[in-house]
Inverse folding.
């Protein structure tokens, strides 16, 4: 069996085509069911996000498998093959594993290192297992991809730092205030920008959210959405004292939060840090407020600057992340090679079992003279002899690291025991080699 | 065995440093394992030494440094296991390895003078060591606070932002550590004062006993440390000096502790020279 990946991503297809080829969560199980009915493929997993649609399958023949998957994709979405095929890419065996590992690590993402993709890979695998579409190969492949994703995130700085303004603000809030569960958030203004940032903070379940806006109706709408309390616009002094985080995004044309106002509040809570996120343009908060010791003031430019620095830093971590991927691909390839021994092992066991059964049938007249217990014992003893005889050769065969040696051993066993054509995994020896073979096909036309 | 202990402390320092730079989970686990092994080896060294000399290793200056290193390592390991934070190991472990060089290169074991037979002396010495270990921990926490605070104030989150716990958590850890340290140091001072009264009766002509007064550098520097930490708690409650200022006070306080433990003890004092 070989591993095959066929898909499109933001690297190869425009968003218009990616939208057409996507499988939403509600249709994914049914699509897996249909795909499972295709000839030439066995195990299946389907990864569909806004940036990619990828099908991971196992098949006996790569060319037939590729054609089958392309046909399914076009037919399912009602698209002409000529419109889709130029944007498709295919990878086989080790290259397919490498691709998934890079995807799970965030190396193939539009924003390198973004964390959501690992969750999406896990979700895709979860749905495939629920539909009973996975087997030994995809189970191993996906579990290893989760491990790669985790390793890259913990051992490199690839996922470090936020790469969106909202997320940068959230990270800063966590680093200043610690666990956000008990903090008080004060929102000044209730426009789109304020609402977007507060939604991010709301997801962290802060202790209280206080909303204050010149337009009461806006404040009420936002407060209702995030379970906040309304603070009258003219009575925010006590809210300044209570707040750990202030999000300011009003449409004011000049600063509404002065240094003196912040200083007055800080005098009443001097040991507790205050994080002010000023995402208004023009700015709502006087820059001098950041001179107060426990005040951390970040405006939209500061946050954008952090984002761009993080992106640069992530770029520098790519080499280390790629090294982890390469290491893990080697491990997967070694496991795949050991799997290549399975047909030979199975055929060998069948051969021995056939001989055992034939001998038992030949001796049937003599065995009939024995008691049932004695007959059972003969059966068990002969079975155990075969088990023990085959144990060492099985282990030795599976432990072979070199693919050519494995094929030579399998061939030798095949000839010595006349195991038949199925005894050697012939698919492993076709055009794309096994997991250790040469770079696999890349279909672009 | 002392050399092995030093090697383990040095290995832990290297591994914690590597873990700080690379953040590889395996390296972090190896660092913790190396430090735990160092503490075990150190416990063995102290145990054998105590059995050999017949008293707790709190009499000589070298013994005091060794006990301090052991206590600090043990306290840090406890902190790491309860918080699952390894970043501070990169600051603590090198300090442990460097300080352990002093007892490692010390000479013959010291016999305890009859003057120190009092249980009050044991209470004084043990609580002082516990206080110094807590202050060391507070200092490391505070230094990391200052580094992170600077990054956040300069609006350039970087190395420390990615590795250290949140500011507020560091501030709370600092407060807890110095509170514990201050309690121990207060007990140490009270036990020491009462013990001096006994010693003046028991050995009035002993020059060390005669030197035990506020003018003795060892005692006056210890009181300076106590005042710095007590002021920090006062300033936090009354003046609102939390975070940044508290962190600086902890750092300065521990500098005074190090001066007492190393410079004063080895070069100046007369009252605490028992080796």
């Amino acid at each position: 069996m070989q591993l095959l990946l066929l898909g499109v991503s933001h690297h190869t297809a425009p968003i218009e085509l990616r939208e057409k080829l996507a499988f939403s969560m509600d249709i994914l199980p049914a699509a897996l069911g249909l795909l499972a009915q295709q000839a030439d493929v066995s195990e299946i997993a389907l990864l569909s996000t806004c940036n990619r649609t990828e099908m991971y399958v196992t098949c006996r023949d790569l060319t037939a498998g590729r054609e089958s998957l392309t046909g399914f994709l076009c037919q399912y979405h009602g698209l002409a093959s000529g419109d889709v095929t130029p944007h498709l890419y295919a990878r086989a065996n080790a290259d397919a594993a490498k691709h998934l590992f890079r995807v799970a690590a965030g190396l193939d993402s539009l924003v390198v290192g973004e964390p959501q993709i690992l969750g999406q890979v896990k979700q895709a695998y979860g749905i495939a297992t629920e539909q009973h579409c996975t087997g030994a190969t995809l189970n191993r492949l996906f579990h290893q991809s989760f491990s790669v994703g985790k390793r890259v995130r913990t051992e490199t700085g690839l996922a470090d730092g936020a790469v969106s303004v909202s997320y940068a603000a959230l990270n800063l809030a966590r680093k200043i205030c610690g666990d956000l569960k008990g903090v008080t958030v004060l929102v000044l203004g209730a426009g789109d920008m304020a609402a977007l940032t507060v939604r991010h903070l709301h997801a962290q379940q802060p202790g209280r959210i206080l909303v204050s806006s010149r337009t009461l109706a806006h404040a009420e709408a936002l407060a209702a959405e995030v379970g906040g309390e309304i603070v009258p616009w003219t009575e925010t002094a006590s809210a300044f004292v209570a707040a750990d985080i202030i999000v300011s995004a009003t449409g004011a044309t000049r600063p509404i939060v002065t240094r003196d106002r912040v200083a007055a509040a800080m005098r009443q809570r001097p040991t507790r840090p205050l994080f002010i996120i000023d995402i208004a343009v023009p700015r709502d908060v006087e820059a001098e407020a950041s001179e107060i010791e426990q005040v951390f003031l970040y405006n939209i430019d500061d946050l954008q600057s952090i984002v761009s620095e993080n992106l640069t830093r992530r770029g520098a971590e790519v080499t280390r992340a790629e090294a982890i991927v390469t290491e893990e691909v080697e491990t997967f390839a070694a496991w795949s090679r050991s799997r290549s021994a399975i047909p030979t092992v199975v055929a060998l066991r069948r051969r021995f079992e056939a001989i055992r059964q034939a001998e038992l049938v030949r001796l049937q007249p003599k065995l009939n003279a024995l008691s049932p217990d004695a007959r059972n014992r003969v059966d068990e003893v002969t079975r155990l002899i075969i088990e023990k005889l085959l144990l060492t050769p099985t282990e030795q065969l599976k432990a072979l690291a070199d693919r050519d040696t494995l094929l030579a051993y399998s061939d030798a066993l095949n000839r010595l025991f006349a195991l038949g054509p199925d005894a050697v995994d012939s698919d492993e020896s076709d055009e794309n080699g096994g997991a250790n073979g040469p770079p696999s096909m890349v279909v672009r036309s | 065995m002392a050399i092995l202990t030093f090697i383990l402390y040095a290995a832990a320092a290297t591994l914690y440093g590597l873990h700080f730079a690379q953040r590889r989970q395996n390296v972090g686990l190896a660092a913790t394992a190396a430090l735990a092994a160092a503490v075990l080896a150190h416990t063995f060294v102290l145990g054998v030494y105590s059995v050999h000399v017949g008293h707790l290793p709190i009499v000589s200056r070298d013994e005091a440094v060794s006990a301090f290193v052991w206590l600090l390592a043990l306290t840090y390991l406890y902190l790491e296991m309860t918080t699952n934070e390894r970043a501070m190991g990169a600051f603590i472990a090198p300090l442990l390895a460097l300080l352990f060089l002093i007892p490692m290169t010390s000479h013959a074991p010291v016999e305890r003078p009859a003057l120190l037979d009092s249980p009050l002396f044991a209470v004084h010495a043990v609580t002082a060591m516990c206080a110094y270990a807590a202050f060391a921990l507070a200092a490391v926490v505070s230094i990391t606070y200052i580094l992170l605070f600077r990054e956040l104030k300069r609006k350039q989150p970087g190395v420390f932002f990615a590795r250290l716990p949140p500011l507020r958590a560091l501030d709370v850890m600092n407060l807890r550590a110095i509170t514990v340290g201050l309690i121990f140091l207060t007990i140490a001072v009270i036990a020491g004062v009462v013990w001096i009264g006994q010693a003046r009766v028991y050995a009035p002509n002993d020059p060390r006993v005669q030197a035990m007064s506020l003018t003795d550098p060892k005692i006056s520097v210890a009181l300076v440390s106590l005042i710095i930490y007590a002021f920090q708690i006062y300033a936090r409650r009354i003046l609102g000096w939390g975070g940044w200022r508290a962190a600086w006070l902890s750092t300065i306080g521990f500098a005074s502790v190090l001066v007492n433990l190393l410079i004063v003890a080895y070069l100046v004092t007369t009252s605490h020279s028992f080796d």
The beta strands of chain A are 2-9, 41-48, 52-59, 89-92, 184-188, 208-212, 229-230, 245-248, 274-278, 295-299. The mean pLDDT of chain A is 87. Chain A has three domains: 2-155, 165-302, 341-425. The longest helix of chain A spans residues 300-340.
